[in-house]
Specification:
alpha/beta; TIM Barrel
Length: 208
């Protein structure tokens, strides 16, 4: 489950009992900058949620950092140090560095994360290729880190098996497409049919 983490400290135990693991959106540890990015929110609540998730074993916790030019591109190491502070003999937290999708109005914040990935690739002591999107997980002396480049990425699309539930009760087979299937109020066989229909709509966003 992907969450902003605001209520994670409160519900971490229940989520653990449900068998989930979580991805927590956290683009900066700077309180003022966090409020500017999210418009609302308290970064300390997010940090507390991640701490609690690691305590109860809701792990590995993925910390999702979307890199934005002129905003936080120089904070990757700080976030990696933060996630690594939870790790001991077991990897409990992993930093996931995400390249911003330059939707209209956000083009000025686009930052190519390739150079950052190259930097951590050079100091990695171990690498693991994950089934999800065939992404490389770098084990470095500073912590475990992954890089996500979703745009114009054939490997990303080809190995994607995710569906998303929107806030208005629809299933979305692709993050970057507008195709949706309504599931609001559906139960039993109706819900099953809607899920199957959504899966049939799946098609790689990038085919080039």
């Amino acid at each position: 489950m992907t969450t902003n983490g605001i209520l994670l400290e409160k519900y971490a135990d229940e989520l653990k009992e449900c068998g989930l693991r979580v991805n927590v959106s956290l683009d900066t540890l700077n309180a003022e900058k966090y409020r500017w990015i999210t418009k609302v929110g308290d970064v300390e609540k997010v940090v507390g949620g991640i701490e609690r998730a690691c305590e109860v074993g809701l792990t590995p916790v993925k910390v999702n950092m979307v890199v934005m030019k002129g905003v936080n591109e120089n904070e990757v190491e700080e976030l990696l140090n933060f996630t690594n502070s939870f790790n001991d003999s077991r990897v409990k937290a992993i930093l996931q560095v995400i390249e911003l999708v330059p939707f209209p109005g956000f083009e000025k914040y686009f930052f190519d994360i390739s150079a950052i990935e190259e930097e951590y690739a050079k100091i990695s002591t171990q690498r693991r290729i994950r089934a999800m999107h065939r992404r490389i997980q770098y084990f470095t002396p500073k912590g475990v880190i992954e890089f996500v480049k979703p745009m114009d990425n054939t490997a990303f699309c080809m190995h994607c098996n995710r569906m998303r539930v929107t806030s208005d009760g629809k299933l979305k087979p692709c993050l970057l497409k507008d195709d949706t299937v309504t599931i609001d109020g559906n139960h039993g066989e109706e819900l099953k049919k809607a899920i199957i229909e959504t899966v049939r709509k799946r098609e790689p966003y990038f085919k080039g």
